[in-house]
Design goal:
23% strand, 402 residues, 2 domains, binds cytidine-5'-triphosphate, Rossmann fold, five-stranded parallel sheet, alpha/beta
Amino acid sequence: MSLLTDKKILLGITGSIAAYKVADWVRALRREGGQVTVVMTESACRFISPLTLAALSGNPVHTGMFSAEAPETIPHINLAREHDLLLIAPASAQTIARLAHGLADNLLATIALATSGPILVCPAMNSVMFQHPATQANLATIRSYGYGVLEPDCGKMACGEEGPGRLTDWETVRQAILSTFAPKTLAEEHVLITAGPTREAFDPVRFLSNPSTGKMGYALAATARQRGATVTLISGPTALAVPPGVKCIQVTSAVEMQAEVMRCLDTATIVVKAAAVSDYRPAEKEPHKVKKGQAALSLPLVANPDILKELGERGQKNPLLVGFAAESRDHLKEGARKLKEKNLDLIVVNDIGGAETGFAADTNRVTLLDRNGAKEELPLLSKEETAHRIWDTVGRLMTDNR
Ligand code: CTP
């Protein structure tokens, strides 16, 4: 179950060429179990057909203040009441001005005025219009009402202009929507998360590593942010986008990761070590590419620092410590051993062998073992849902600590 399951989202589309992009967002919201109803301004209907949005949302599209089919209903009040979130995307300069000044001269603006729940606004317009002091003042005004504003991207626009004004991307919007629904259990916390593999080079083009993709660590970072934490992510090389609102420090080797963890430790209240750190590194790094036949057939290795163990040895001074145990056999025994040996508060034991639970999978099946001897076996879940369950347990342990 996603945080979007059964959530009622009212999507307000206004007159911008970017209107076609949100058709895909409707599908994405529904794929995650959200229920979408669309309201379109008159100008929006010139850019994309209400029929398209009706087909994609599976609901009638509202375009006018007065419903011919049910004249006894008051659509703006009912629509405002019946939804968990009002998402206005793309939001034109005109609609933003309407919102700022509390105008109620079309259905969407009237709904916004009658909405007491969360409102997210995604501006999209020509960059000169966006940067105009009037638009900026209107955005500041709607922010002061508590509306969330998702800054547009910079880049080339349909009008040929280049600059800020392009509708932001779906992943940013998705994270903002999830943030409005996530419980704010980490609002006071500064979470330090490590993710991904490390690479241990033995010449300028070759390294030792492992197949970690960083998905679990990035899911932890995104969900911690959704739950209100300040998040620092220390990441080995991955192909993943940094979740919005997360500070990411990129590293390559275990030694670099260790240095960054120690540097950021002071402000952290929770540390989660989801990274798959290489236990060994080549004893020497050749300055130039090793040529065929030139290298010995064995590679001398030296041990890398065990970052988590080092943290555990600090004892009392520590933030709450969460480790991962990636195991292919004797999972629980090995997890319990690492929990104790590294002096952790919680360990997340996962099976790296299965197709659904291995390194690159989008799902995971983990068991949580805590310092008090509690054991919680989670079912097969998406990595995002697994992350939320880990934060639930971390929240309980933090409460015990205080
Ligand atoms: N870890 C670490 N530094 C290392 C190795 C591991 O901080 N050099 C952390 C990992 O991020 C993880 C936990 O320790 O949170 C356990 O990692 P894992 O690879 O499962 O175990 P190891 O301690 O390396 O033991 P083994 O390889 O014998 O299973």
